[in-house]
Amino acid sequence: MKKNLFLSIIFSFCVILQSVASDTVFVRETQIPVLIERQDNVLFMLRLNAKESRVLDEVVLNFGKDVNVADIQSVKLYYSGTEARQNNGKNFFAPVSYISSHTPGKTLAANPSYSVHKSQVDNPKRKVTLKADQKLFSGINYFWISLQMKLGASLLDKVSVDIVTVKVDGKAALVHSVSSENIAHRVGVGVRHAGDDGSAAFRIPGLVTTNKGTLLGVYDVRYNSSVDLQEHVDVGLSRSVDGGKSWEKMRLPLAFGETGDLPAAQNGVGDPSILVDTKTNTVWVVAAWTHGMGNQRAWWSSYPGMDMNHTAQLVLSKSTDDGKTWSKPINITEQVKDPSWYFLLQGPGRGITMQDGTLVFPIQFID
């Protein structure tokens, strides 16, 4: 009897082994917002080291019960080839960035040079099967799953989803997740993308809500590249009156053009901080203006002194109409800078109004 039981256990174990694919699929889930305007958002990245496996057949997903699937436009599966040999053993989950964060015109969708579109399900139900039928490269293979929301999707949506099954060579593969459990992806809007308004990059954001509930976001408008001052940089502002669903055309609260007959790239102003005076609803933006200095980094090119030809200037602009229009620059360098300091500038981001009405911006300096 014991012998028969032992043989039955061995037989059952062998049947289980035969029903499971030989290679493990490793999965990493992203933890970033899903942007409504993008045709592709990276949701999952999959890595399969094909030692014995030949074909990845399909991937099955299941959206959480609280997900509003009616707001989802499509779910897609991409194959992204293999890994460079010198990276073997490093356990990467992608051979390259699938969607550029900085190349104008390529920030909204998968770059077809890097990914092969294998499958797509439009207007998905809660359970989604993505067919692949992808022949596997001997060694590392990368796949990724993309999510596209409908343009009218709510910013209050959250997306939770699990990979239920990955089939390889007709069998369910072992799936090992390296991510946290119960990830919920928020839905958002990308206010600025590389290439918008002719700018190469937008950096250093700050965000406030006015007394009227208006959202005001400030940032560097870096026209020529993503590098910092000294360069052609203005302070940009985006304004939303509907809780961030839509944003008005960009404004420039601070821009110095060709002041002093120098090129715009030697009149940069940036690293903004924004503040709402909650007593009056006046909005203030502070930034560093760097005049001259050639085209090297201002951190090293600003020197002791007070005038604009020697040291960076601390400038303000204010709005008294809820961020619609902005004053001419207000230079407060003489009021706050020690002449011996090399560089005085704000701490980027936002300031606060204290209970007694005092306005506070973060400040830093090099002495």
Automatic annotation (TrEMBL):
Pfam families: BNR_3 (PF13859), BNR_assoc_N (PF14873). One of its GO terms (biological process) is oligosaccharide catabolic process. One of its GO terms (cellular component) is cytoplasm. InterPro entries: Sialidase (IPR011040), Sialidase_fam (IPR026856), Sialidase_N (IPR029456), Sialidase_sf (IPR036278). It catalyses: Hydrolysis of alpha-(2->3)-, alpha-(2->6)-, alpha-(2->8)- glycosidic linkages of terminal sialic acid residues in oligosaccharides, glycoproteins, glycolipids, colominic acid and synthetic substrates. Its EC number is 3.2.1.18. It is an enzyme of class 3 (hydrolase). Residues 1-21 form the signal peptide. Residues 204-364 form the Sialidase domain. Transmembrane segments: none annotated. CDD domains: Sialidase_non-viral. GO terms for molecular function: exo-alpha-sialidase activity. Residues 23-171 form the Sialidase N-terminal domain. It comes from Bacteroides ovatus. This is exo-alpha-sialidase. Belongs to the glycosyl hydrolase 33 family. Keywords: Signal.
